[in-house]
Specification:
The protein contains four helices and five strands. It has a five-stranded parallel β-sheet with strand order 1-5-4-2-3. It is α/β, with parallel strands linked by helices.
Amino acid sequence: MKSITVQELKQVLDNNKKFTLLDVREERELIMASIKGFKHIPMMAIPYQLEMIPKDEPVYVLCHSGIRSAQASLYLQQQGIDAINILGGIHAWSLEVDPEVPVY
């Protein structure tokens, strides 16, 4: 499975590359912390909203700690989508990249 660290994701964001940041957490989690510019589809809804996920650009998949996003990334890869798991999720982002994003 493809994966990326939060530091590598920061570089992707800074370079303005074309991609989708897919947050697979639940709505209540988004209220607590998020990264600007994300697309939200809860993990369990992905099979029903697959057409909303682009197939022509990388899709970086985010959750709280990297476990749900790893499962979602694997599923998306099996569907022909260039999905990349974000290791450590929003928790790592908060601790290592942007301390203004609350830890929960």
